[in-house]
Amino acid sequence: MTSSEATTSFYPIGTPGKPWGPEERALWRSRQRRQRSHRDDVVAAVDRLRGHFDVQTYGEVESGDGRLPLLAVRSRGWGSDLPVVLVTGGVHGYETSGVHGALQFLAQDAAAFSDRVNLLVVPCVSPWAYERVQRWNHDAVDPNRSFREPSPAPESAALMRLVAPFKGRFIAHIDLHETTDSDESEFRPAKAARDGEAFEPGTIPDGFYLVDDTENPQPGFQQAIIDEVSRVTHIAPADTAGGIIGSPMVAPGVIRYPLRELGLCASITGARYTTTTEVYPDSPRATPSQCNLAQTAAVRAAIGFALASWGG
């Protein structure tokens, strides 16, 4: 397990103990540089899927020099008698395997479920952050703490509008994430500075893990995913306190959060089966390809378990 070193210097934006205002947020935004292309990496990949899926532009968000489309990929021949599964990636744009794992699932695995489930896949919820390898959106807001009404993040609000017509039909939602070394070196220090709080270093778990819902625990569902992913990459062990990122480990590689209370993406469908995946791409024991495969394995296992329980 990788430990962060104590950080004694304050994040270089803002005043210690004072939350950011508009000027600090604007300064933070001015320091973000476009490092990759949503059009080349995501839009082009989605375009290649149009022969087999329906594609919906469900909104747009600020890009700094224009607007970026929010894209959803849907099963062709949407069946009114079939349940719905939501797969989301890129809620945090810097979590690369969430985006590319969702796209890889569509290209390689989705056809196996075409006659049993309606798939709704949103590969990149936060395209501005994807291009800048960032956690937050254009306004220094974390989309994955913003799935509530009214939402402070346009990315989150748009996704909630997209899924609203299908409430009651979802059987599963798999939200694809990563936990990276940069969480400790950049994103948690930035959050502390933004909120006027002291930064307290933590640890980054080495391996794959899942976040279940405290209010709707589904241990069998989580275990099915862990079993499948363990064939691809290693599962994160508990830390010295018996937990993962400050939460008790309730089963190998599984912790729980109160999803709705925290405004997390996995709370938005009301599905019985929900999970948030967390891959560790900085591990010396994992490659980018393995991280993508871990995400696709998680989606396959989740859909298979949900369909077996539903009877499809």
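[next item in queue]
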Amino acid sequence: MAQPRFAADAVGMVLGALLDVVFGDPRRWHPVAGFGRFASLVERRTYADDRVAGARFALVTVGVPVAAAAAAARLTRRRPVARTALVAAATWAALGGTSLAREGRVMADRLEHGDLDGAREQLPNLCGRDPSTLEAPELARATVESVAENTSDAVVGPLFWGAVAGLPGIVGYRAVNTLDAMVGHRSPRYARFGTASARLDDVANLAPSRLTAALTVAAAPVVGGDPGQALRVWQRDGGRHPSPNSGQCEASMAGALGVRLGGRNVYGSRVEERPQLGDGGRPTPRDVRRAATLSVTVAAAAVGVAAAARLRLGRHERGRGRK
């Protein structure tokens, strides 16, 4: 039997995932928004156009919430009900799977009804590409790619680190991922300052992205896909993407849906040519809907895997304590 604190963590993650299913993202007083304001304050006080300043910024902005979460975990070590509630709240705040799938379905609806203007307005809810010149096939592709990547970032990543490190893992992962979104992109201001945050996010997502890809392969039949094809495309194309992690998720999604991803992406004044992932045609609105369904399926599987892993770790710790 697992130690009570590990069992509380496992139950808390499951409850937090259920809260996300029922309510989606908290509409007011979202902790991630509060963290963003804290990080912006630290940035204003520490910014300099160099990597050392960026490393100090990342250390402070990640270290403070992780230290607070670790202190809370210690205080609730022998209080399983309080610990369960804390982990459930943190998991709910960290997860974004329900909102991600909902945004994907909205995009599918607009594309199916030929509402191109509405689809272009919808895209910024999913990714940072310039939608102004995109036609329906490119809007569908951008959505499928975003759903694939964010299934890892918004679902599997927090759960993976919750399984590994409990409450501090959930909080720390969400802090790292939020910093990457804030300062980890390529721009004149953050080209050097954001390097540490971007690299930290890469490291934090090495395992979650590959777990996401593996779960996507396993779940392919839910949307009529072939797991063998999904595995083949993942293994062949996962390393072609400029990101060490996004390509894993996007390639497995492309294989599971039987579509082709990649191509020309415009981010404001910056243009990127991404390699082709997959062998099929360009995604259709139906494929966007299938991607959302696949994301929800992967999320449900990830909850089960994370809770089981945390319980197993607790049994391992109990066994060590008896020696």
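[queue empty]
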